[in-house]
Design a protein that fits this description.
It is a single chain. The protein is built from 12 helices and 9 strands. It folds into 2 domains: 138 residues, Rossmann fold (3-Layer(aba) Sandwich), CATH 3.40.50.720; 110 residues, Alpha-Beta Complex (UDP-galactose 4-epimerase, domain 1), CATH 3.90.25.10. The chain is 46% helix and 14% strand. The protein is α/β, with parallel strands linked by helices. A 7-stranded parallel beta sheet has the order 3-2-1-4-5-6-8, with helices on both faces. A two-stranded parallel ribbon has the order 7-9. Strand 2, helix 2 and strand 3 form a beta-alpha-beta unit.
Length: 287
């Protein structure tokens, strides 16, 4: 039995749909805090059960009889998520799970100005110490996370996305395909895969690619870390996300997310979609 957490999240839901499209729904248990919100997945033949990372008893029940666990990182501020992840990892040990595949983050270090990195440092360390067989998928920023920023820039001519340095953005579908390979294939035990895209662009380069795709002049705002936080606040983002903005700016400025990786292609057998190609496919011809 394989269990996948976060079935109602963007990654978990898309991963489930991809598994179903490959005829792999049987023998997969999906967990979510509210199974009633995942009726579409139940209809596809998945077993959907309740599990809340803040409720060890619910995790014990959800992970019972599971051999492999795909643990998708929870949401929330760092002080909230660290104990939630610990609960899930400890429950996997109690349930006798043999192997865990964990969605980590590039450069999972508490020394990073990106505060969420500390979550993944702690989770990886706890998994290593647990005795479970493990695989870590260190995801970079998703290309799709740029969509609202790109849409706004197409309208206004100014890209307000504030990460200063280069980032090797990766498309969600490439992460999904790599995840399925790591979860269902052989030989991935004790491996760390860096799921980054094939090119790294900074905000000025992103604006230039978007300009070419849309056929109009678009520039980066060139704002500071504080400016980026202010933009996030004006958008009504949660306080912990607003506070995170400066870390995104500084981590990218330090080059922490700038290294392209060949791991997605090694896992999937095909070249991943780079950010430039993603932008062109999404915006080419639009005015």
């Amino acid at each position: 039995m394989i269990a996948i957490t976060g079935a109602n999240g963007r990654l978990g839901h898309a991963l489930a749909l991809a598994l179903h499209s490959r005829g792999l729904a049987e023998g997969i248990r999906l967990t979510t805090r509210d199974p009633a919100q995942a009726q579409d997945l139940t209809a596809l033949g998945f077993q959907v059960v309740a599990a809340d990372f803040s409720s060890p008893a619910s995790l014990d029940a959800a992970f019972s009889g599971v051999d492999k666990l795909f643990l998708i990182s929870a949401t929330g501020a760092t002080p909230v998520r660290i104990p939630l992840h610990r609960n899930a990892i400890d429950a996997a040990v109690r349930a006798g799970v043999r192997r865990i595949v964990y969605t980590s983050r590039v450069n999972p270090s508490s020394s990073s100005p990106y505060s969420f990195a500390a979550i993944h440092e702690d989770s990886e360390a706890r998994i290593r110490a647990s005795g479970l067989v493990w695989t870590f998928l260190r995801n970079n920023e998703f290309s799709e996370n740029l969509d609202p920023w790109l849409e706004e820039a197409r309208r206004t001519g100014v890209l307000e996305y504030g990460a200063k340095g280069r980032i090797a953005f990766v498309c969600r579908q490439d992460v999904i395909d790599a995840s399925i390979a790591a979860l269902t294939g052989n030989g991935h035990e004790g491996k760390i895969y860096e799921l980054s895209g094939p090119e790294a662009l900074d905000r000025d380069q992103i604006a230039a690619v978007l300009s070419q795709a849309c056929g109009r002049s678009i520039r980066s705002s060139g704002g500071s870390a504080e400016d980026f936080s202010a933009v996030m606040a004006a958008q009504g983002r949660p306080d912990f996300i607003v506070a995170l903005a400066a870390g995104i700016y500084r981590a990218s400025e330090a080059g922490e997310w700038a290294r392209p990786s060949g791991d997605p292609e090694r896992l999937t057998g095909r070249a991943p979609l780079g950010l430039s190609a993603y932008i062109r496919s999404k915006f080419a011809g639009l005015e």
